[in-house]
Design goal:
Length: 394
């Protein structure tokens, strides 16, 4: 029975799965790896667990999931090995949901004892023990099809040597499996991350294990999700704004489901207190307030990066994605700060914004704001400060 408390995205899931497992002539590059980036709390993990995994299984693929954010006190390799062992152990349980589904989907008889791998799970990653390549070869062979490894918050692997070693080990495993001529499937790796600049670097820098992998932005929830939520709220006998007002507020809050739920909850208080005669206006005010509150940490990070970084961020947010090092721009910054600003001064300022996941390098000398939600809030804040400055001037 479907879980009606979860909004499902079957069409999006099926599209991604088909591109991955049944690539067309323009999708072959996805076999090198797929990296999806999107800001935190927009539903990536829920989508992966609730829609992407079931769709993979429908197509006969085995999915393995590891979240590098779940326990940042542990090394990425330790988390990876734990996830691989867990998937392998589940295959060995004849009554497990996974084995039952594989039996039904693929029509295979795995025997009464489940699927037994030809490697010692306890030895994975130890000196003289099985390697990740050994395990994934066995998983592909015994599951009789593709194995898809999903790494959530994949950019965490770049923060340590252990994590980078893990990525190179996975690349070796992928190459080992995918170049074999006697295996019934491929090893496909999908990474999701909230730090867009780092995720992009993983696929574009030649020094990275998955250089050349495909990168794309995670598709945020749309109006159909907002409509679904409003109908659930209405069915519970509660007040709601119009769909247009709710969707507009949802986008203003960064398309984050949790923030929309907060807004609808606060809207009930406004209605109960008689302060929502104009429902849509009241809801828009709630959303604007929540958006500013949600962006406070990012706003603080921008301002903590220094005056020059603030000016650079404002220029990028206003649409100047190139030319930050141009003489005209540097002269403008110099006039604003009352001191000379050189290209050498710009580099560390930009680097601070990139490291904080506030700005993304799109190419040489080209930048964009990492989170459109933060961009909207910042632009409004700048406009408000300019207005207050004009009103206070004699």
């Amino acid at each position: 029975m479907a879980d009606n408390s979860v909004f499902h995205r079957p069409s999006y899931a099926q599209t991604l799965v088909r591109q991955l497992l049944q690539p067309g002539p323009l999708d072959q590059g996805l076999r090198s790896g797929v990296f999806l980036s999107g800001i935190r709390r927009i539903g990536k993990t829920t989508f992966i667990r609730q829609d992407f995994f079931p769709a993979l299984l429908e197509h006969g693929a085995l999915a393995v999931y590891v979240d590098l954010w779940t326990d940042r006190s542990r090394s990425p390799m330790a988390l990876m090995l734990e996830a691989v062992r867990a998937a392998a152990l589940e295959l060995q349980q004849p009554t497990s949901t996974l084995v039952q589904k594989l039996r039904r989907v693929k029509g295979l008889n795995f025997g009464a004892a489940g699927i037994s791998l030809g490697v010692q799970l306890d030895s994975i990653g130890t000196a003289g023990g099985a390697t990740l390549a050994d395990v994934f070869v066995e998983l592909v062979r015994k599951a009789q099809g593709d194995v898809v490894l999903v790494i959530d918050e994949v950019q965490q692997a770049m923060a340590s040597q252990d994590g980078q070693d893990m990525l190179f080990a996975l690349k070796a495993a992928r190459d080992n499996v995918n170049t074999a001529t006697d295996l019934p499937g491929k090893l496909l790796i999908v990474g999701t991350g909230s730090h867009k600049s780092l995720v992009t670097d993983m696929a574009t820098r030649r020094s990275q294990a998955f250089a050349g992998a495909h990168t794309a932005s995670f598709e945020p929830l749309g109006k159909d999700y907002v409509d679904w939520l409003l109908k659930r709220v209405t069915a519970a006998g509660l007040a709601v704004p119009s769909l247009e007002a709710a969707f507009s507020g949802f986008r203003d809050m960064g398309s984050r489901p949790e923030e929309l739920t907060k807004a609808v909850r606060q809207f009930q208080d406004e209605v109960a207190a008689g302060r929502a005669a104009d429902a849509d206006t009241a809801f828009a005010t709630i959303c604007a307030t929540l958006a500013t509150a949600a962006a406070e940490l990012d706003i603080q990070a921008i301002e903590d990066a220094g005056e020059l970084a603030v000016l650079a961020f404002s220029r990028i947010a206003a649409g100047q994605v190139r030319g930050l090092y141009a003489a005209e721009t540097l002269a403008s910054f110099s006039a604003s700060l009352g001191r000379e600003v050189s290209a050498n001064d710009m580099t560390p300022a930009i680097d601070k914004l990139v490291a904080a996941n506030l700005v993304v390098r799109k190419g040489h000398g080209s930048f964009e704001i990492a989170d459109p939600f933060v961009k909207q809030v910042w632009v409004r804040l700048v406009q408000m400060r300019q207005t207050l400055g004009r009103e206070s001037s004699p």
